[in-house]
């Protein structure tokens, strides 16, 4: 019998192996999101830690009879991280116990403009982020 089918009975035996196997996928998805949304994210480490949390969620929601874990993980990671970027709570949480998003509302407008100008000088594609911030005002 496949050990992964009994994942709830002995989660440490299979989850560690699956994490090592799919770590490159997690890094890849995090890197893609970081490359496109870095201006909205506190740090890459927070994003990766959240992705690892979602990995555990995906592991426990995976039904082996419906398909391979890799495809399930990829779908769950992408959708849950994108939902969190839109402001949704993490899975299995009531409210917002943690987030990887930067909180622009807690700093003054002048600090936002200074931060935006600095990032705009570093990356010309940051123009869309500037428009988002201006729309919030």
Task: List key phrases describing it.
137 residues, mainly alpha, 5 helices, elongated
Task: Describe the structure in your own words.
- By secondary structure, the chain is mainly α.
- It contains five helices and no strands.
- α1 (11-37) crosses α3 (69-85).
- The longest helix has 27 residues, at 11-37.
- It is elongated and about 50 Å long.
- It starts with 10 loop residues before the first helix and ends with a helix.
- Mean pLDDT is 75; it is low at 1-7 and 104-108.
Largest sheet: none
Instruction: Count all strands and give the number.
Output: 0
Spans of at least 5 consecutive residues whose pLDDT stays below 50 are 1-7, 104-108
Quaternary organization: single chain
What is the gyration radius calculated from CA atoms?
18 Å
Structural class: mainly alpha
Distance between the termini: 58 Å
The share of residues in helices is 55-70%
**Total helical elements:** 5
Tally of individual domains: 2
Write the layout of secondary structure elements.
Elements: H1 11-37, H2 44-61, H3 69-85, H4 109-122, H5 127-136
Outline of the structure:
By secondary structure, the protein is mostly helical. The chain is built from 5 helices and no strands. It has 2 domains: 1-93; 104-137.
């Amino acid at each position: 019998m496949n050990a992964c089918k009994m994942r709830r009975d002995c989660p440490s035996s299979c989850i560690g192996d699956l994490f090592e196997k799919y770590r490159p996928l997690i890094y890849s998805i995090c890197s893609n999101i970081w490359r496109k949304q870095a201006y909205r994210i506190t740090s890459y480490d927070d994003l990766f830690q959240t992705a690892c949390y979602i990995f555990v969620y995906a592991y426990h929601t995976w039904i082996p009879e419906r398909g391979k874990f890799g495809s399930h993980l990829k779908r769950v990671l992408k959708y849950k991280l994108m939902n969190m970027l839109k402001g949704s709570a993490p899975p299995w949480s009531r409210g917002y116990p943690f987030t990887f998003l930067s909180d622009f509302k807690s700093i003054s407008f002048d600090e936002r403009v200074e931060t935006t100008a600095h990032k705009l000088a570093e990356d010309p594609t940051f123009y869309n982020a500037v428009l988002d911030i201006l729309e919030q005002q």
